[in-house]
Specification:
ABC transporter transmembrane region fold; Rossmann fold; 6-stranded mixed sheet; 4-stranded antiparallel sheet; 18 helices
Length: 607
Amino acid sequence: MRITHSGKPPSNRNDWKTIRTLLPYLREFKGRVALSMVFLILAKLANVGVPLVLKSIVDALNRPKALVVLPLFLLLAYGALRLGNTLFAELRDVVFAKVLQRSIRRVALKVFRHLHDLALRFHLERQTGGVSRDIERGTAGIRFLMNFMLFNILPTLFEMGLVMVILLLKYNPWFCVVTLITLVAYIVYTLAITEWRMIFRRTMNEMDSKANTRAVDSLLNYETVKYFGNEGYEAQRYDSTLATWESAAVRNQTSLSVLNVGQGAIIASGVTALMLMAANGVTKGTMTLGDLVLVNSFLIQLYMPLHFLGFVYREIRHSLADMERMFNLLDQAPEVYDKPGARELDVRNGTIRFEHVSFGYDARRQILSDVDFQVPAGHKVAVVGASGAGKSTLSRLLFRFYDVGSGRILIDGQDIRDVTQHSLRAAIGIVPQDTVLFNDTIYYNIAYGRPDATREEIVQVARAAHIHQFIESLPDKYESLVGERGLKLSGGEKQRVAIARTLLKNPRVLIFDEATSALDSKTERAIQAELQEIARNHTTLVIAHRLSTVMDADQILVMDHGRIVERGTHGELIVRSGVYAHLWALQQQEDRETPLRAVGNGLMPAR
């Protein structure tokens, strides 16, 4: 199953399944939940006791020779019950607060961890804004559901039961019958209309996620929007989604008014019928004035929560719809997972072996075909070829972002599918071509390679990556913020931060994926020398476009359309006059023509 934000949420998760998902979090604090229930019952007993005491007070004061002591005692009892209702309700909330907040924290953390466990394929297809909104609304839905389902619906039903029992025992059975008919009519009407309204809420959720996705995507690509002058186009796309949301919101509010009017009519009918019966009883002498007050008080206490119950039920249904999308994320099965009993990767020398590996992101499009090579421990192997040849796919498979279609990948003779993903990735470091940084400080981004590193170690790797001097020139030095995705830094500066971060990790296996592509020639030569020194003690796989950066490799693999078509050292491949020699000649020609073009364009002084 794949989650998208272009259609309705999958319907395979029902409401009871969503509710059952929360039960384990309640069981963790069984004592607190039980104590909360005790306080809840005491609060409701005190609430139901208030009309009974009030009846006794009215009857006592209505007697010709009322004793002052008796009403005074009842008045004190009335005040105590009122206080008890509030006190027990607040104690209930205090005791349950930890259960509620811990549950929200656990669910949010579980979803967060699960998202990181999902394969790269999911994250390449996801829409960040929509997913973030799903999680935000889902956690808010949990808060509402747990609070109101436990402390409003259940206690209201409990109170209704007590009231009907009292009416049945003390008065004409018709009082109980009319109350029951009113309750049933109210509940049936509320359920029917609320279910009809849910389609509008789901549409609102979908459009809200879609609008947020478009807004986040547009803002993340702010410069691209400006380059092409497409501010109006972006606003139009955003507004088209908001227009659909607006239409659903208007229908949602209209249907809410229909629901409220119908609920009010049912309650008014029931209250009127009961008051007529009570007033008739008083005039006939079968009921006292206190009985009339008792029935009226019960009706107020019963129908006010009942009216609120309609609101709570609507909101619970909305919360379930909100939670549905978030929990559907948990239903996503990880594409890549550790086998039961997977062991830690035992890195001894760091020898890498691709053994007849074939792979395709899609069954209809093969990317790699029978790729077979070895990177001996401590050696440097480079992979070159045209764009789309499958070079970067090798690093993704080595990190096990995907599993191979056939063949296997070994590190020191161990199939990477048989070891834990954590230990595998701990043994490999990468400097990617497209470096994306966290919206934090330069210090944080370098330290991300090993969060427990000392400041001296971080400065040391920054020097090795030739970025320390630049950092020291900034007003806030290492505490300078890099901006969203590192946009405050140039491409070369971001790449040097990535190099420093990988050096800090100090893994046994290194991957350089166009690691110096964004650097100027002078800095590139300096860092290339540094990387060559580092590579002496590491097993290194270099993915390169510029052939001049891999001339010193122990072996160069030339890829074309997912296959290795040539292999050898730089000298051997040049002599062979094959694909590599052709690529080398083209790049040499480009290097000669670039200064000439720059002079012709007035970018460089002629010599």
